[in-house]
């Protein structure tokens, strides 16, 4: 059959493939690579959580759950969010269990965006935000943060891009890729502008459990922000459960009802066995999370100090498990730096520009690797820099 | 002895890996090298750190396979010294690796390492059972060590993650 039309939608045609993909293909083709390119814990899911999943299979819990998720899990999530982040959500109709935080983001955006609505994305940002805004029919509007402010969003930057079409703001704290954490005072300043311009906030708090230096503040816990916030979180990072694909949304009833419509038609429900595992994670996983967090903090301290010592200037990230050092002193673009480092020293890092324009001049290094790997990576990077 | 958070962190790091370089440890806990050295010295002097040990899988060394046995020992405690005196008499033997006072069906749990089963049998029948206070012994030979002092002996520790991910 002769194809005479363009079959792929214009929106999808315009989407650029993820910049990480190219590096994945290159690194995967090489042997002996030390990878600092991974965005996931190097810990295996705690055994008690895996065991709970096995038990659920043995007991034959293999059918669909309610669209919004198992009642017992939603209740645990509600208790967890209240206990850890001091915000109350009704498990009956304000919590939805999703297929990872990624699906939660997708559902959130599709529930609120009308064609040509603008959504502010704070860069450097997780690679999915802007494409998901586009897929929802909206227009992503970037705000570029800078190393000068440790990549923290400055509230006045919102004022500079806000228009009558601005619908929402996506914030991610602790941030992927910079590790920047917004504290209570900074969030309050942002809240003030959000309220002034009547915006919604999608608060991606997937790294909330990995906050090292200060008490974590959840955005909806700020005065009057619960009503205009869609809280996104999940089990991937804090509980080392990336492959389980389990996240959740907590939001005021009207938002949750809208999102549940999309979720029920597209996903039906999150995987049942993963939901049983998540109940165990919330009930008994706190000590495991604490242990993992302690280990990340130690490795962060080691890695960031070592980066600075070998001449890659790096701010101390407050959370997540990424260091975001500047490579501007080398005169190379982040793409050139990452490619040469990979080819010449077999260390995989992610070039900063894939996270948005303001990521240029930086690289993302995940320190969720063993101490021995980090020590070796530093040795190789030092050798590489000395050769330049 | 009350330790600070940093001191506890250092003990935990050394417990996991006694060969961790001091400069690496200093960076991990955000202290200077000399501060870490001082802390370790203090902990060694106070016997919080008792010894630096190496866990060896002797099965992999030809001619050194060895045999380990756990022996449940029932004893008669003595007035004034309780179980301490007999425990001390037992732990002085070099082949005894550990001695614990237990609650339950027996009193002392003794771990012995020897070159062969007959060597252990000899120790139990000639040395241990003949002690005045010892009422009875039950010997369990360890057939295979899977995990010892928190260390798993055979473990595939390859990284299962893809090389680059979001």
UniProtKB/TrEMBL annotation, chain B:
Gene3D superfamilies named among the record's database cross-references: 3.30.70.920, Winged helix-like DNA-binding domain superfamily/Winged helix DNA-binding domain
- The HTH asnC-type domain covers 3-65
Q: Which UniProt keywords apply?
A: DNA-binding, Transcription, Transcription regulation
InterPro entries the record matches: AsnC-type_HTH_dom, Dimeric_a/b-barrel, HTH-Siroheme_Decarb, Tscrpt_reg_AsnC-like, Tscrpt_reg_AsnC/Lrp_C, WH-like_DNA-bd_sf, WH_DNA-bd_sf
The GO molecular function terms of this record are: sequence-specific DNA binding
Q: Which Pfam families match?
A: AsnC_trans_reg (PF01037), HTH_24 (PF13412)
| UniProt-listed PROSITE patterns | HTH_ASNC_2 (PS50956)
What name does the UniProt record give this protein? Lrp/AsnC family transcriptional regulator
What is the organism of origin for this protein? Anoxybacillus gonensis
């Amino acid at each position: 059959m002769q194809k005479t039309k363009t079959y792929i939608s214009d929106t999808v045609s315009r989407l650029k493939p993820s910049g990480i993909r190219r590096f994945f293909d290159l690194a995967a083709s090489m042997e002996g690579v030390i990878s600092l390119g991974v965005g996931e814990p190097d810990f295996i899911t705690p055994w008690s959580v895996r065991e709970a999943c096995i038990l659920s299979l043995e007991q034959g819990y293999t059918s669909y759950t309610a669209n919004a998720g198992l009642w017992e899990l939603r209740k645990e999530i509600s208790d967890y969010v209240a206990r850890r982040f001091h915000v109350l959500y009704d498990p009956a109709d304000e919590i939805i269990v999703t297929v990872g935080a990624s699906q939660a983001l997708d559902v959130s955006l599709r529930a609120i965006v009308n064609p040509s609505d603008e959504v502010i994305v704070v860069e450097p940002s997780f690679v999915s935000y802007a494409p998901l805004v586009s897929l929802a029919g909206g227009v992503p509007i970037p705000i570029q943060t800078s190393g000068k402010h440790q990549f923290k969003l400055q509230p006045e930057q919102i004022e500079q891009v806000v228009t009558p079409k601005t619908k929402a703001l996506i914030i991610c704290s602790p941030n992927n890729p910079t590790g920047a954490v917004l504290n209570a005072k900074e969030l309050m300043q942002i809240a003030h502008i959000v309220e002034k311009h009547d915006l919604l906030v999608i608060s991606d708090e997937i790294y909330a459990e990995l906050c090292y230096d200060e008490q974590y503040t959840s955005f909806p816990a700020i005065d009057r922000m619960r009503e205009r916030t869609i809280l996104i979180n999940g089990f991937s990072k804090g509980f080392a459960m990336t492959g389980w694909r389990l996240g959740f949304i907590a939001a005021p009833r009207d938002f949750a009802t809208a999102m549940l419509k999309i979720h029920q038609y597209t996903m039906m429900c999150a995987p049942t066995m993963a939901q049983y595992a998540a109940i165990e994670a919330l009930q008994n996983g706190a000590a495991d999370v604490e242990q993992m967090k302690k280990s990340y903090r130690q490795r962060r301290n080691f890695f960031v100090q070592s980066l600075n010592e070998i001449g890659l200037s790096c701010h101390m990230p407050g959370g997540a498990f990424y260091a975001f050092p500047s490579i501007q002193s080398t005169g190379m673009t982040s793409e050139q730096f990452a490619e040469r480092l990979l080819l010449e020293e077999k260390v995989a890092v992610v070039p900063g520009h894939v996270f948005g324009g303001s990521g240029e001049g930086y690289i993302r290094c995940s320190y969720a690797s063993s101490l021995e790997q980090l020590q070796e990576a530093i040795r190789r990077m030092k050798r590489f820099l000395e050769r330049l | 002895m009350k330790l600070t958070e940093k001191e506890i962190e250092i003990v935990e790091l050394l417990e996991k890996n006694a060969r961790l370089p001091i400069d690496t440890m200093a960076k991990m806990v955000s202290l200077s090298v000399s501060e870490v050295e001082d802390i370790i010295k203090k902990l060694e002097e106070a016997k919080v750190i008792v010894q630096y040990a190496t866990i060896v899988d002797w099965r992999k060394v030809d001619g050194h396979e060895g045999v380990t046995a756990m022996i449940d020992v029932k004893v008669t405690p003595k007035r004034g010294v309780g179980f301490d005196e007999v425990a001390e008499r037992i732990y002085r033997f070099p082949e005894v690796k550990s001695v614990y006072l237990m609650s339950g069906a027996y009193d002392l749990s003794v771990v012995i390492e020897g070159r062969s089963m007959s060597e252990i049998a000899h120790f139990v029948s000639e040395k241990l059972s003949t002690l005045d206070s010892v009422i009875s012994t039950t010997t369990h030979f360890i057939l295979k060590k899977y995990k010892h002092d928190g260390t798993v002996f055979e473990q595939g520790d390859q990284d299962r993650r893809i090389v680059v991910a979001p």
